[in-house]
Amino acid sequence: MEREKLQAEIRKLARDRKALILAHNYQPPEIQDIADLVGDSLELSLKASRTDAEVIVFCGVLFMAETAHIVSPEKIVLFPAPQACCAMASMVSPEDVRALREAHPGAPVVTYVNSYAEVKAESDICCTSANVVRVIASLPEKEIICLPDRNLALYAQRHFPEKRIIYHEGFCPFHDVLSPEDVKRAREAHPEALFIAHPECRPEVIDLADHVASTSGMLRFCRESPHREFIIGTEVGLLYPLRKQNPDKKFYPASEKMICESMKLTTLELVYQALENLEPRVVVPEEVRVRALRAVKRMLEIPRG
Ligand code: 13P
Ligand code: SF4
């Protein structure tokens, strides 16, 4: 079936099924174009927790679909590309969390949503790249455990010189790969451009950034900025919404190596089949879900900045 026709069929089927299609900012363009909401992890979790749709179709990676089920267990959560895993989420286990707690008694555990439900279930509160600073600011303790992303923890540490942020050695391979040399090369090629980085980038890359933000924070910054050119230090999928929203501005990838293959596994055909069959679903076991919900809910209750 040709692309536009399939997209129209999906929209019709979604209406019939009372389904909400959520897509992350890194999803392929043709998927973003059929979504009810395209957003960052925080926006998508909030929407999943507040919709009255009967079905949620999650176009993203597994931890995102799991989070949708954690906050909305009464809904069917469809996950059209079940192989789509986040490399960072696989780098931490519940045992790692328990070991960190034992080594640092009294330190609360802040878990990045880029983690699996079993890890969230061991945590005190979750965070995303959009609210990590607000989440840590809400905690009175001087020692805080922040996992699984070392780079996100080191980024947060800059905002809290009076606290000690203890981190785990996880990382996103597609952000950690960006080097200061890549940024310098991009700046030389585009001397008028601002460099915008995601907090999953290495500290030495963050040092070079004009602005640091979540994916939707980057979209907001570029939309509102009077600047015309931007070098984008995150997964290349974000270039599509950036260019779509700002046809008069120029966007350059900081590195062509920043491609998260998992985010590209969703296809229109898979979304159509998922809606038709109401499968494959993501279901978090209830015992894990209720414990993970505490940490996710506590995060969602923090006022947005
Ligand atoms: P955002 O929450 O900023 O969209 O980031 C999600 C992610 O997976 C980044 O790699
Ligand atoms: Fe995970 Fe990195 Fe992909 Fe984001 S870009 S989903 S952190 S592997």
UniProtKB/TrEMBL annotation:
Q: How is the cofactor bound?
A: Binds 1 [4Fe-4S] cluster per subunit.
Name where it mostly resides: cytoplasm
The kind of enzyme this is, by top-level EC class, is transferase
Q: Which protein, by its recorded name, is this?
A: Quinolinate synthase
Q: In which pathway does it act?
A: Cofactor biosynthesis; NAD(+) biosynthesis; quinolinate from iminoaspartate: step 1/1
> Which key words are in the record?
4Fe-4S, Cytoplasm, Iron, Iron-sulfur, Metal-binding, Pyridine nucleotide biosynthesis, Transferase
> Which family does the entry's similarity section mention?
Belongs to the quinolinate synthase family. Type 2 subfamily.
MF terms in GO: 4 iron, 4 sulfur cluster binding; metal ion binding; quinolinate synthetase A activity
Catalysis performed (reactions): iminosuccinate + dihydroxyacetone phosphate = quinolinate + phosphate + 2 H2O + H(+)
Q: What is its EC number?
A: 2.5.1.72
A biological process (GO) of this protein is:
'de novo' NAD+ biosynthetic process from L-aspartate
Give me the residues that bind [4Fe-4S] cluster, please.
86, 172, 260
